Recover the amino acids of this structure.
């Protein structure tokens, strides 16, 4: 809502309050002022000129050589490029030395050999946006009314010596979508009285009801409809004061009738519509729901196809207006209109919003109906508008108003206690303080001891509950004046064990070189199922913005690969990323999906990079696995974790492992296969993904100290020759099982294939460490254990000791 | 004999002086002081001297031996030091060459902000609550006093899956879920961080996915002044003690009274600049007293209980705190961006 400071002064005394004071006070009271515009600022030397003569420029087809009277001794020559310049016009002239918006300076100059003593201006050139410039002058200079006096300063004439406040209103403060509403608010803030416009009520002898009948078929959509008739109007441009007020408010002037409806809309917040009575098509207004596929061409010359959802004004036969949104082209007020049918109504906001959305038409009217207008101003606004039309367009207002009224306006009464108010806000106000604030709001009230009963005026439909009153009182008392305290309870905060462990996961992975990334939960149809640990139906958005974010993801890996790809394309060659985020498993069409928290990582580049020492180790499968092993150790779940050869679409079949927790697959680690490398335009990327939820929910032992070994341990190395297919993990498990209590550690230290090892076989060497916490082991004891182990691996895997 | 000793002393001292290494010194020691050395010889031959000569020559011989011993020890030490110095010189390296730095990762800036805020409120006795990203219409809107025909529920603004399921547009449904679970019994003190979604095109200031942190306190006797004190604590801890705060009345369907909080602009110190659009203030969060309808709908008696809630955009805090100018950076995961948040504040 744009509010002219000058115009606002018609309703409230702003003495001693500058526009910026006002903006600050409004903002602090909850009506946020987004900006203040001073349209006249920096403008200089702009006056009314009279074009005495206009002829073609001798050296340029598109220019005119004009002789302009500026009220000085001699008329001056000005070259003008506007197509509509003509002798006899009163125009806006920027004299040499003038300044225009954007700090443009006008100088005496020569244009194609002819002297130009200034410039004849369009409204855009003096700072108005094209949107508000009257259509007739949109492509040329502005022509002032005949009676304008030569030499008059333009800035005050166009009310540009003003400040325009741009109010950013919250949804509940639709009452401030009118000048009078803003005046009430300012009155409450400044504790000053509001002056309402005077309505004289002069009417002709004829009665409106003789001219028009009214039928509202759906009163729930339209609880109040009023119609007035103004006869013998003469359509023409509005006076400048009216045009400039409209333009300052962002509305384009049209003619003296339409302009009045817009003016009253701004003044009262009551949308109005003027029909040409003679073009209306009948003597009867019928308000009803549209029929399916019924057509209406609106004022913007667009043919609209209607449905039963839309409320229309009809002439009994066909629609003439889309109620509350826009009038029809056929019944529009035109230059030859003689009689005006003026509509002032109260339409249901939901119905108006539906029509406005369906047709993509947001108008000054529709936005007010949607947010809620004051039902008690419907008639008053109509009377005031009719009178103003009669005054400006020279007509006469017919007696009375035709109306269909099914509206019941119950006054809203709110009871509240001073004690409760103070308890909720944390203040220590007295009855007297509260009374003063209610008076400033101009609400009527009663007070009985410390109990208040407030009657809320219909313009403030946002106030219904005691809490609403608390807010009114608190905001006018000043939020700044509320004390600062903290809740007085004693409670203990903290993270849940799960949340703590999640932070440990982050810290651990970061310590190992990975950077946390955050990617989108929504992905594309194509990517949603890539790298998914389990197949599931897609969960699709009904109204996506783009295909790239239209389905919920089942894996975090695809977007991590996108991030890797993005980085590689920018020459960030080493990329180690991890993410913790949700994946979504469908539980059926109308059920909330199962959200599983996953942990995933993607790594490529050099894990060790000490170039001047010649040490460069690219990330490989075992780097990533090692990182996970450290993580599992940190979470004390290592002993529940196993790996097995795995397979997953998108991963290298020979370099993929499933990760199992208590024998159940909870994730994978592996290398991206060539297809995916191509798809994502990446190379040598290793990824992992885990169902973090399951991992962190695993019950683990509490941390307890175990004593430092007192006795020496004994280590023995063995190298085993086995078939190539036998996995180190299986061998290790057999060794561990056979070694039982005395065997404390089994470590792989060498894997070898080639010379001295038969074809199809490999050698795996282990260091076995034996230890007894109670005593020093003897060699004999160890030999016995060692033999048992050798027998076990031979039996289980056909392993031979390498000689 | 005397001359012989003097001659020996002179000769030995010259040798010692000229010794090049420890081995040579060792040899000199053996040569002059050894059992077969000249001094031992002389002392052994004392018996052949005249009795009156003996003490003189004996004393001289001992003196010469001590002198040589002393000199040898001194030289030994010198040479030993020189040898150490030489070894150290050989081992010296270019200390300006780069160290063997380990790659260490770090938190995403948004997580960094979230954890900072979580810790701040944990210190005030809050716990951290979380909820699903796919919400039902009921928890996302209805339970928060946003009725069916409310403009905030426009299909245009939210990602719907079905008529009843949508990507949550705010973290507030966690409020409703937590209250419902508490079955009408306070206190509740929670902070709820999480991902949220709006139907926006991604650009420098909009992101279809973003993060919010919601706070909720419900108890008997919670006052608006408690909210004010809490918000001031939050703002000063996160943005610095020198920042001023301002509360402005505002409107949200789930709170009444409602407010927005501004902090004084860091760039201009409140005088007005392009960052704060000339106002001197920057809006950072919305808050208010929990609406009685919300309390009632979620099982709390609004006569007995009251509460406050606030919601803040995590990206907004991070952008203001670190001076980030484009919201898309948070989701592009360019390592050159992410790595900047390795260092402390």
């Amino acid at each position: 809502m744009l509010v002219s400071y000058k115009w606002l002064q018609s309703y409230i005394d702003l003495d001693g309050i500058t526009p910026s004071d006002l903006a600050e006070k409004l903002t602090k009271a909850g009506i946020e002022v987004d900006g203040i515009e001073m349209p006249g600022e920096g403008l200089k030397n702009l006056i009314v000129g009279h074009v005495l003569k206009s002829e073609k420029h001798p050296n340029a087809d598109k220019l005119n050589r004009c002789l302009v009277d500026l009220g000085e001794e001699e008329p001056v020559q000005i070259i003008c490029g506007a197509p509509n310049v003509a002798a006899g016009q009163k125009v806006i002239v920027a004299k040499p030395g003038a300044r225009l918006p954007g700090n443009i300076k006008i100088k005496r100059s020569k244009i194609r050999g002819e002297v130009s003593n200034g410039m004849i201006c369009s409204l855009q050139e003096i700072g108005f946006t094209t949107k508000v410039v009257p259509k007739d002058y949109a492509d040329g200079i502005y022509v002032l009314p005949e009676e304008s006096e030569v030499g008059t300063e333009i800035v005050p004439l166009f009310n540009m010596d003003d400040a325009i406040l741009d109010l950013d209103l919250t949804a509940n403060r639709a009452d401030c979508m009118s000048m009078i509403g803003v005046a009430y608010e300012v009155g409450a803030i400044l504790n000053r009285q509001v002056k309402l416009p005077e309505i004289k009520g002069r009417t002709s002898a004829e009665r409106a009801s003789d001219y028009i009948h009214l039928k509202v078929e759906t009163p729930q959509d339209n609880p109040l409809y009023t119609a007035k008739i103004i006869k013998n109007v003469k359509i023409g441009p509005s006076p400048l004061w009216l045009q400039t007020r409209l333009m300052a408010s962002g509305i384009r002037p049209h003619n003296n009738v339409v302009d009045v409806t817009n003016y009253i809309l701004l003044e009262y917040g009551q949308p109005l519509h003027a029909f040409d009575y003679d073009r209306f098509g009948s003597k009867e207004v019928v308000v009803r729901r549209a029929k399916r596929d019924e057509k209406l061409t609106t004022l913007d010359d667009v043919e609209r196809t209607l449905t039963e959802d839309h409320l229309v004004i009809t002439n009994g036969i066909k629609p003439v207006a889309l109620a509350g949104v826009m009038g029809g082209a056929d019944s529009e007020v035109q230059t030859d209109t003689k009689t005006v049918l003026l509509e002032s109504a109260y339409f249901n906001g939901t119905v108006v919003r539906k029509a406005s959305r369906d047709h993509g038409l947001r108008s000054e009217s529709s936005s007010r109906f949607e947010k809620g207008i004051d039902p008690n101003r419907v008639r008053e606004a109509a009377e005031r508008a009719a009178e103003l039309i009669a005054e400006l367009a020279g007509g006469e207002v017919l007696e009375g108003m035709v109306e269909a009224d099914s509206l019941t306006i119950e006054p809203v009464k709110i009871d509240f206690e001073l004690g409760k108010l103070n308890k909720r806000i944390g203040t220590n106000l007295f009855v007297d303080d509260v009374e003063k604030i209610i008076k400033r709001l101009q609400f009527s009230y009663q007070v009985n001891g410390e109990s208040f009963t407030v009657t809320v005026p219909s313009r403030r439909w946002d106030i219904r509950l005691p809490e609403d009153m608390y807010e009114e009182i608190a905001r006018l008392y000043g939020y700044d004046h509320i004390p600062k305290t903290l809740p007085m309870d004693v409670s203990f905060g903290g993270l849940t064990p799960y949340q703590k462990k999640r932070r440990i996961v982050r810290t651990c992975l970061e310590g190992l070189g990975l950077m946390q990334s955050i990617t989108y939960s929504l992905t594309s149809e194509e990517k949603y199922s890539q790298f998914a640990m389990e197949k599931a139906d897609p969960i699709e958005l009904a109204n996506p913005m783009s295909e790239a974010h239209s389905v919920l993801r089942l894996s975090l890996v695809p977007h991590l690969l996108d991030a890797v790809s993005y980085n590689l394309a920018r020459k960030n060659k080493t990329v180690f990323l991890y993410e913790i985020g949700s994946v979504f498993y469908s539980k059926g069409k109308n059920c909330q999906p199962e959200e599983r928290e996953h942990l995933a990582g993607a790594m490529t580049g050099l894990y060790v990079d000490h170039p001047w020492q010649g040490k460069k180790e690219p990330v490989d499968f075992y780097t990533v696995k090692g990182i996970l092993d450290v993580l599992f150790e940190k979470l004390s779940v290592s002993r529940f974790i196993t790996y097995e050869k795995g397979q997953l679409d998108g991963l290298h079949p020979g370099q993929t492992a499933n990760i199992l927790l208590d024998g159940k697959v909870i994730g994978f680690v592996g290398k991206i296969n060539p297809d995916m490398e191509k798809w994502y335009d990446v190379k040598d990327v290793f990824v992992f993904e885990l169902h973090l939820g399951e991992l962190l929910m695993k019950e683990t032992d509490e941390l307890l100290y175990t004593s430092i070994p007192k006795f020496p341990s004994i280590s023995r190395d063995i190298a085993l020759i086995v078939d190539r297919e036998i996995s180190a993990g299986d061998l290790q498990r057999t060794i561990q099982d056979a070694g039982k209590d005395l065997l404390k550690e089994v470590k792989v230290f060498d894997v070898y294939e080639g010379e001295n090892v038969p074809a199809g076989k490999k050698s795996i060497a282990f260091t076995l460490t034996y230890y007894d916490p109670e005593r020093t082991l003897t060699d004999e004891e160890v030999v016995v254990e060692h033999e048992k182990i050798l027998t076990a691996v031979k039996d289980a895997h056909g392993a031979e000791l390498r000689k | 004999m005397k001359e012989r000793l003097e001659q020996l002393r002179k000769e030995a001292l010259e040798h010692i002086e000229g010794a090049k290494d420890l081995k040579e010194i060792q040899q000199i020691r053996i040569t002059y002081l050894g059992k077969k050395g000249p001094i031992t010889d002389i002392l052994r031959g004392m018996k052949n001297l005249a009795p009156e000569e003996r003490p003189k020559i004996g004393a001289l011989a001992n003196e010469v031996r001590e002198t040589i011993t002393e000199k040898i020890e001194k030289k030994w030490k010198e040479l030993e030091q020189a040898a150490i110095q030489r070894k150290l010189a050989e081992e010296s390296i270019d200390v300006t060459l780069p160290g063997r730095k380990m790659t260490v990762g770090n938190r995403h800036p948004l997580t960094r902000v979230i954890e900072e805020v979580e810790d701040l409120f944990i210190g005030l006795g809050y716990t951290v609550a979380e909820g699903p990203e796919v919400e039902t219409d009921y928890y996302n809107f209805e339970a928060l006093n946003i009725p069916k025909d409310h403009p905030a529920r426009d299909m245009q603004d939210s990602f719907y899956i079905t008529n009843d399921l949508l990507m949550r547009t705010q973290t507030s449904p966690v409020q409703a879920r937590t209250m419902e679970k508490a079955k009408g019994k306070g206190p509740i003190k929670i902070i709820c961080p999480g991902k949220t979604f709006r139907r926006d095109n991604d650009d420098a200031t909009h992101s279809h996915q973003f993060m919010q942190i919601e706070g909720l306190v419900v108890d008997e006797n919670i006052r608006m002044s408690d909210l004010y004190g809490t918000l001031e604590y939050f703002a000063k801890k996160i943005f610095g003690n020198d920042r001023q705060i301002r509360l402005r009345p505002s409107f949200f369907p789930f709170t009444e009274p409602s407010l927005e909080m501004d902090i004084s602009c860091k760039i201009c110190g409140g005088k007005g600049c392009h960052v704060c659009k000339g106002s001197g203030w920057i809006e950072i969060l919305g808050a208010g007293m929990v609406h009685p309808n919300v309390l009632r709908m979620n099982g709390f008696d609004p006569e007995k209980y009251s509460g406050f809630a606030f919601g803040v955009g995590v990206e907004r805090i991070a952008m203001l705190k670190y001076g980030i100018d484009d919201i898309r950076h948070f989701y592009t995961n360019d390592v050159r961006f992410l790595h900047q948040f390795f260092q402390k504040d």
Summary: Residues 2-38+163-190 of chain A form a domain with the Phenylalanyl-tRNA Synthetase; Chain B, domain 1 fold (CATH 3.30.56.10).
